[in-house]
Structures are given as structure tokens and as C-alpha cells.
Design goal:
This protein is an alpha+beta fold. The chain is built from eight helices and 17 strands. The strands form four sheets. Strands 5-2-1-6-7-8-9 form a seven-stranded mixed sheet, sandwiched between helices. Helix 1 runs parallel beside helix 6, helix 5 crosses helix 6 and helix 5 runs antiparallel to helix 7. The radius of gyration is 22 Å and the shape is elongated. The model has no long low-confidence stretch (mean pLDDT about 95).
């Protein structure tokens, strides 16, 4: 079966590898164009494009699936298209090109968390269980019938990045199995059922911590925003980045945003009990241990996060 693979970030690479290892004929890869990376803004291929080059697979670079991209997809003559975090919508004109359509690996238990940031939103919401599904792509936002499902426990210290990494590997196996079932004529998709929730892409503001919120909510927000866009706060008018915090229910006397030391631990007050900072990145500096950051401050008594 001839497969077009559409994907861009590193989390899509395990799926590309899984399809190749399963023996599918991946005839082309569709990915986003090279992007400037790092301080020197060097144009760099997407992780999927880089892996496709290593595998000797033709690459179609397109910021959106326009007429030119559609012509390239038609030229590849795929029987099915597998899509994992490509980063753009598939227009109706492209949906009907492969005879088996487009099969999307999505990192949530649809219809929960439809959208671009399902793992991040699940962590922020405090979900205990999440997972991944393969489904038939259609015009609606993640609305198509589901072929296969897997579940994954959300650990109390899981960041969105850690959880997504796990799902990228287990989901790759699910995607390969789904395509095998389709090729064998044994796949059966079932309509989605249950409550719908949306997972729009995170913005920078989604990472800003509000210290008046309860500690549990702050902890979830910080983990969900890690690694991107990152958790942060404001100190003296400047943005300070934070790695995920630890809950400290034994300390409930600090006002929201106030910072203090407890032995070697750096604590911040919230709307409930305190949280413990792990690592801090002040403006213009590198990420450092919270205790090292605190020792560099003249006095913590006047330090209040906004």
C-alpha cells in the first residue's frame, strides 16, 4: 500500500519510523517548510523532513496544502495518507485523493480535546487518563470516526512534553496497526461519542502563572505549559521563566506571589498553600537551580511575583 506521510515536529518521527519498519511503501512525506532555528536563525528542516531525507523518501514542503501541494500529492499517488501533527488543515480538495482517505493519529481520547494542543490541555485540566486515537480525517475539526484507541495514565509529575513523548511511541504502533487493518480490509471506524472539549493551541499567556490561583491549579498549568510556551511569571516588570513547581501543602502562611526560603527550598505563596520552585530563568540569563537564583537576590523579603 502506497502511503503519504504528513507530519512536522519530532513527535511525528516515531510514526514515520513505525510505518517504514512495518513495510509500508511510504512514497512521500508532506511537512512544513524549513524554519529559522536558534539565535543565528539558521534555516533548518523539520524533524520529519530530516528523517525522511535519511530514509531516502521524497519530501513535499508546504506551509499550507494549496494547489501546488495538491498536485504534488496527486503525483505521489498514495492509497492512504497518514497524518501526525502536520500543523495545517487538509482542504476538501486533498481529502479525496487517497482512496482510503487520510488517517489521523491524534493524542487524546476523542471527542475530548479536539484541536492543536490536546496533551497540554489534558495536563492543565488535571485529567488522570488520556490517550491517542486513529480516526478518519474529514472536514470538521477532529470529528471523524475512530479506528483505534489507546489509553495512557497521566502521572502526577508528567509535563506535557514527557507525556507527549510517551504517546508518540505508543501512538506510532497504533497508527501502523490501523493502516495494516485498512490494507487487509478489516478496519472498522466507529462514530465518536461522549462530551466534546476543545484544545486550542497554547499562547504565551497560557504559561503565565496567577499566584492567586490554588497551588494544584498552578502546578497543573506549569506542567501543561512545559516545554512550550513555558511557565512564567513577572518580577519587577520582567518575565521570569519557571520549570514545573512542586506542591508544598505543609506551608500555608505565604501570601500569593511572595517568595521565601525554607532551608534550601524556595517557596512561593498561592491562593491555597505554597509551591516549591525547581528551576528559574531570570530575564537575559540561563535556567538555574531555584536555590542558586535565590542566593543571587539581595533580599527575598521584597521579592513578590506578579
Amino acid at each position: 500500500m502506497r502511503v503519504l506521510f504528513a507530519g512536522t515536529p519530532a513527535v511525528a518521527v516515531p510514526s514515520l519510523n513505525a510505518l517504514v519498519e512495518a513495510g509500508f511503501n511510504v512514497v512521500a512525506v508532506l511537512t512544513r517548510p524549513d524554519a529559522p532555528i536558534g539565535r543565528k536563525r539558521v534555516l533548518t528542516p523539520s524533524p520529519v523532513a530530516a528523517r525522511a531525507a535519511e530514509l531516502g523518501i521524497d519530501v513535499i514542503r508546504a506551509a499550507r496544502i494549496d494547489a501546488e501541494a495538491i498536485d504534488s500529492i496527486k503525483a505521489a499517488a498514495p492509497d492512504v495518507a497518514a497524518i501526525v501533527a502536520y500543523g495545517g488543515l487538509v482542504p476538501p480538495a486533498a481529502l479525496g485523493i487517497p482512496r482510503h482517505g487520510w488517517i489521523n493519529l491524534h493524542f487524546s481520547l476523542l471527542p475530548a480535546w479536539r484541536g492543536a494542543a490536546p496533551v497540554q490541555r489534558a495536563v492543565m485540566a488535571g485529567d488522570d487518563i488520556t490517550g491517542a486515537v486513529t480516526f478518519q480525517l474529514e472536514e470538521g475539526l477532529d470529528t471523524g470516526p475512530v479506528f483505534g484507541t489507546l489509553t495512557e495514565t497521566v502521572g502526577p509529575e508528567d509535563t506535557a512534553g514527557v507525556l507527549l513523548e510517551r504517546l508518540s511511541h505508543s501512538g506510532a504502533v497504533l497508527l501502523a496497526r490501523t493502516l495494516s487493518a485498512i490494507e487487509a480490509g478489516k478496519a472498522a471506524a466507529v462514530p465518536q461519542t461522549g462530551d466534546v472539549s476543545l484544545a486550542p493551541k497554547l499562547t504565551l499567556d497560557d504559561g503565565r502563572l496567577d499566584w492567586k490561583h490554588p497551588a494544584l491549579a498552578i502546578g497543573r498549568q506549569a506542567r501543561g505549559a512545559t516545554p512550550e510556551p513555558g511557565a512564567w511569571t513577572v518580577l519587577a516588570g520582567q518575565r521570569v521563566k519557571l520549570e514545573p513547581v512542586r506542591l508544598r501543602p505543609d506551608v500555608d502562611s505565604l501570601p500569593p506571589g511572595s517568595v521565601s526560603m525554607d532551608g534550601k527550598s524556595v517557596l512561593v505563596g498561592t491562593g491555597s498553600h505554597a509551591v516549591e520552585l525547581t528551576r528559574v530563568q531570570p530575564a537575559g540569563k540561563k535556567m538555574m537551580a531555584a536555590a542558586d537564583w535565590a542566593r543571587g537576590m539581595a533580599s527575598l523579603e521584597s521579592v513578590v511575583f506578579e
